């Protein structure tokens, strides 16, 4: 409460500035990669330096040591987001994004989500991919885990699956 004690005004404001506020002309905030730095597991790795954690390290520029690679019989990779959260977009950076042969880009794969790590729902079925980077947008769903199942690792006879980065976004 403000109380005046004279005949003049209580306040005399000559200048003011408004800051922040997220007005209509402010750019939207940058999307947050929910998978960045989160725990990742996989069926196998081609080498110790090509483990599942490399697909969520935020980089594609570290050469062969900056990717997840698998030659296992069932090639899968998954990330634990830590808590169930709303997801709606996945970005996969394949072999070509890391500077390797584009024929090694993941050709056929599914992306699945789960809230408990046991029951999975297929959200994306990508087939005949040749792109270095693929973006997959779905209707928002709740997920704690996101899994990549590789059905055909490459567009040639090479049998290794290679993913340089896997990103998960709210939308």
UniProtKB/TrEMBL annotation:
Q: Which Pfam families match?
A: F5_F8_type_C (PF00754)
InterPro entries listed in its UniProt record: FA58C, Galactose-bd-like_sf
| Segments forming domain F5/8 type C | 26-171
- Protein name, entry field: F5/8 type C domain-containing protein
């Amino acid at each position: 409460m403000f109380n005046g004690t004279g005949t003049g005004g209580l306040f005399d404001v000559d200048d003011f500035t408004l800051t922040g506020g997220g007005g209509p002309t402010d750019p939207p905030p940058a999307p947050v990669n929910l998978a960045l730095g989160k725990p990742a597991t996989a069926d196998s790795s081609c080498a110790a330096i090509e483990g599942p954690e490399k697909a969520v390290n935020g980089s594609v520029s570290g050469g062969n040591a900056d990717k997840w690679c698998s030659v296992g019989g069932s090639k899968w990779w998954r990330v634990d987001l830590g808590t169930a959260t709303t997801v709606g977009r996945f970005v996969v950076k394949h072999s070509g994004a890391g500077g390797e042969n584009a024929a090694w880009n993941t050709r056929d794969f599914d992306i699945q989500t789960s809230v408990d790590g046991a029951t999975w729902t297929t959200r994306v079925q990508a087939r005949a991919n040749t792109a270095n980077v693929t973006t997959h947008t779905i209707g928002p769903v709740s997920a704690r885990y996101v899994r990549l199942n590789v059905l055909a690792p490459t567009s040639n006879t090479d049998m290794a699956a290679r993913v340089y980065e896997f990103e998960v976004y709210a939308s």
